[in-house]
């Protein structure tokens, strides 16, 4: 008892007597923290400091406030945005013939280019006072998605001027003079922009760009001015072959000290007319044979005045932060919009095709193997739509959620790839035979483009999501890093002490929450709703606590090595990502008014998200270098094993059946792929066949029953079968006509293009 009391007194003194604690706990921990603190490059530090944290911070900290998620509201279109989509966008869809664009012209037709310029498709994000539309991120995403449902080449052409590039950079950082000069011309389509960031030696590591701008004096418009001598070599630049104005990222240097004492000023962005002396627009690339303009640009010793720096000379060296903050458009709006369009297109056409395509006398949609893939398409499309809405909601709230947009970019483009793979598997011959009627092939072929741009997916997953998320979203780590970097040792020690005590309490809470939720089945976790989705909120809270607990252990033990343990950091990032995607799914269900017909799809999506999150946690524990701590983590996170096994076969069959019929949920999950009377892609054809065959389901049921009873032969042509059925009074003449007409549409829809000569 005496020994126990002494131990208690020692612990009390160590942790509750401040002077003792600071001497024997805080000071050694601070020294250790400084030792294991991962070194940050300038670009990493700027990226870390840029942008905002948003809903992902709640998910990262072990106890999400679900009411906050619901309070964000749901995205809506203004009357002006809705009118633009109902009129101009629908007109564009009627003008698109993607087979002609990709396989014959290798470009958009002139009338489509003119319409894009005239109607402001290149000015969606430019403020109204400069002649732009000033649309929301949600409207921008919806417009790009609808166009992408008919043509990726056309969608990318619209996407780029409204994504990372001169328009967005000027809007946020340009001088008043730059805005007044460039934005009205960009809004009218008189100027076509591109932005040159990547090059042969710098892709995802944009901070490694070798392109330089040397501060010097030179001639401009006959005057001797202070400026930059630029040399660059860029590739993969979308719209470069047709651009009239070039946004350029380069490393700015001042070796002569013309601007001050700093020689290496850092990454800077400038705006240069492509007709300017020395600017070279190179030849076109051929990105997976898509027809959008993409190419190269070079320049050697090109002189520009300092005033051409975006934001003026005061923004010299601030380009990397500008780029990181503006990447949300590409990562959070444009590329996810393309992926979501793939989902809507695949869902609309594959549910229709699975219903009308027959093998062994049955619609292929009745085979369980097809149902499994079809359920994935449907659930992933719901997931894509949910994530699209939640991510654009954050952007429209004027936050710059860099971690969220990285999650959206990586996971949504990967989901888009999975959706297209499943659609190709089901539609098989229909999907692979190229021609005007093939609506899957171009999207399938182009999927890797979204995977590789705006940061390659592998690096986005392994370096960015957790790398930024762990530091930015953690309630203490970033502040502890700042305290550790203080020059005043006494102030640093006092600041670190306060943070350390909070951090210890936070870690203990998450450890107890992890095992408590695991043992109780998350019974005591908070949930803002009742009904079938209540348990998903509870289970997500369990995953959140486990993520927070394991992250603290990983950062404590691995320190700076965690940055190099990319497989572990990627798995931890996967947990955060699955929690974000699951949050989006639950929020969409609430935003839709908790529609009963969506429940099977929501359950499928949530069972998948939880399965993947648990698998990522389990993978982290299994591969953790310190095996003793790995055993402790397993005990606290999975004390009775991992019971998250994903959707059941019964649930998958239910999801597949729910969209193989005209229904409100089918409309909600395919609205980004609207019906167009002038459609030339085969989408309208397969949809018309689906609608007609479905309306004849009762007639087909009569014939199948008669065959089952032996009153009709099974192996006969449909026309002969109908004649006999009419004679025997099984169906009437009107039913015969309807059935034959529907079957004609069905045959036309499942047929593919053929050519006399290729």
UniProtKB/TrEMBL annotation:
Identify the cofactor(s): FAD
Q: In which pathway does it act?
A: Lipid metabolism; fatty acid beta-oxidation
Q: What residues does the Acyl-CoA dehydrogenase/oxidase C-terminal domain cover?
A: 317-457
One of the Pfam families matching this protein, by short name: ACDH_C
Q: Which domain of life is it from?
A: Bacteria
Q: What class of enzyme is it?
A: oxidoreductase
Boundaries of each Acyl-CoA oxidase/dehydrogenase middle domain copy? 194-294
EC number, as in UniProt: 1.3.8.7, 1.3.8.8
Q: Which UniProt keywords apply?
A: FAD, Flavoprotein, Oxidoreductase
Question: What reactions does this protein catalyze?
Answer: a medium-chain 2,3-saturated fatty acyl-CoA + oxidized [electron-transfer flavoprotein] + H(+) = a medium-chain (2E)-enoyl-CoA + reduced [electron-transfer flavoprotein]; a long-chain 2,3-saturated fatty acyl-CoA + oxidized [electron-transfer flavoprotein] + H(+) = a long-chain (2E)-enoyl-CoA + reduced [electron-transfer flavoprotein]
Which residues are in the Acyl-CoA dehydrogenase C-terminal bacterial-type domain? 471-755
- Domain Acyl-CoA dehydrogenase/oxidase N-terminal, by residue range, is 96-190
**What protein family is recorded?**
Belongs to the acyl-CoA dehydrogenase family.
Protein name, please?
Answer: Acyl-coenzyme A dehydrogenase
Q: Can you name the source organism?
A: Shewanella dokdonensis
């Amino acid at each position: 008892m005496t020994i126990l009391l002494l131990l208690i007194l020692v612990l009390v003194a160590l942790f509750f007597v401040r002077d003792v604690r600071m001497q024997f706990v805080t000071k050694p921990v601070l020294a250790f923290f400084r030792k294991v603190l991962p070194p940050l490059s300038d670009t990493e530090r700027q990226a870390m400091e840029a942008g905002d944290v948003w809903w992902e911070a709640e998910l990262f900290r072990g106890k999400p406030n679900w009411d906050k998620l619901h309070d964000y509201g749901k995205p809506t279109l203004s009357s002006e945005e809705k009118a633009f989509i109902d009129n101009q966008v629908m007109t564009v869809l009627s003008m698109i013939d993607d087979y002609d664009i990709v396989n014959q012209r290798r470009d958009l037709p002139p009338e489509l280019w003119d319409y894009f310029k005239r109607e402001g498709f290149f000015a969606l994000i430019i403020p109204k006072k400069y002649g732009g539309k000033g649309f929301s991120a949600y409207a921008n995403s919806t417009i790009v998605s609808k166009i992408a449902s008919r043509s990726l080449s056309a969608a990318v052409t619209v996407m780029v001027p409204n994504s990372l590039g001169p328009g967005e950079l000027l809007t946020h950082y340009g001088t008043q003079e730059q805005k007044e000069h460039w934005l009205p011309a960009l809004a009218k389509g008189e100027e076509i922009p591109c932005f040159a960031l990547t090059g042969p030696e710098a892709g995802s590591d944009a901070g490694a760009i070798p392109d330089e701008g040397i501060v010097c004096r030179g001639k401009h418009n006959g005057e001797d001015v202070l400026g930059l001598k630029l040399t660059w070599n860029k590739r993969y630049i979308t719209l470069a072959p047709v651009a009239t104005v070039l946004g350029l990222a380069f490393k700015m240097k001042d070796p002569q000290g013309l601007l001050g004492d700093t020689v290496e000023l850092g990454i800077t962005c400038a705006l240069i007319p492509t007709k300017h002396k020395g600017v070279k627009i190179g030849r076109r690339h051929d990105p997976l044979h898509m027809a959008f303009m993409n190419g190269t640009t070079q320049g050697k010793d090109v002189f520009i005045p300092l005033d051409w720096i975006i934001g003026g000379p005061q923004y010299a060296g601030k380009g990397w932060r500008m780029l990181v903050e503006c990447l949300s458009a590409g990562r959070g709006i444009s590329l996810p919009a393309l992926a979501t369009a793939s989902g809507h297109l695949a869902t609309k056409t594959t549910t229709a095709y699975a219903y009308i395509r027959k093998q062994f006398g049955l619609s292929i949609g009745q085979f369980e193997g097809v149902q499994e893939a079809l359920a994935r398409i449907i659930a992933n499309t719901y997931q894509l739509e949910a994530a699209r809405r939640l991510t654009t909601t954050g952007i429209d709230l004027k936050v710059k959620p860099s971690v969220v947009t990285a999650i959206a970019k990586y996971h949504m483009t990967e989901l888009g790839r999975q959706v297209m793979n499943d659609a190709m598997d089901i539609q098989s011959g229909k999907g692979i035979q190229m021609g005007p009627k093939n609506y899957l092939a171009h999207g399938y072929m182009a999927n890797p483009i979204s995977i590789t741009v705006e940061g390659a997916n592998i690096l986005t997953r392994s370096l960015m999501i957790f790398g930024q998320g762990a530091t930015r979203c953690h309630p203490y780590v970033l502040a502890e890093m700042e305290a550790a970097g203080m020059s005043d040792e006494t102030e640093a020690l006092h600041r670190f002490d306060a943070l350390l005590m909070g951090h210890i309490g936070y870690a203990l809470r998450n450890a107890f929450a992890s095992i408590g939720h695991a043992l109780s089945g998350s019974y005591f976790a908070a949930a803002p709703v009742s009904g079938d989705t209540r348990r998903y909120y509870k289970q997500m809270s369990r995953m959140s606590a486990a993520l927070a607990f394991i992250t603290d252990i990983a950062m404590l033990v691995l320190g700076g090595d965690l940055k190099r343990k990319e497989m572990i950091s990627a798995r931890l990032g996967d947990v955060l990502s699955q929690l974000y995607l699951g949050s989006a799914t639950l929020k969409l269900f609430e935003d839709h008014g908790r529609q009963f017909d969506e429940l099977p799809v929501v359950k499928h999506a949530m069972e998948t998200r939880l399965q993947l999150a648990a698998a990522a946690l389990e993978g982290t524990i299994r591969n953790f270098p310190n095996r003793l701590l790995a055993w402790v983590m397993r005990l606290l996170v999975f004390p009775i094993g991992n019971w998250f096994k994903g959707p059941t076969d019964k649930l998958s069959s239910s999801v597949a059946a729910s969209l193989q019929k005209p229904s409100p949920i089918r409309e909600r999950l395919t609205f980004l792929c609207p019906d167009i009377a002038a459609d030339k892609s085969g989408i309208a054809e397969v949809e018309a066949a689906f609608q007609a065959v479905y309306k004849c389901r009762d007639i087909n049921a009569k014939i199948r029953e008669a065959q089952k009873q032996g009153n009709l032969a099974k192996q006969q042509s449909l026309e002969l079968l109908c004649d006999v059925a009419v004679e025997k009074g099984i169906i009437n003449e009107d039913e015969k006509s309807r059935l034959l007409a529907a079957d004609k549409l069905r045959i036309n829809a499942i047929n593919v293009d053929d050519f006399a000569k290729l």
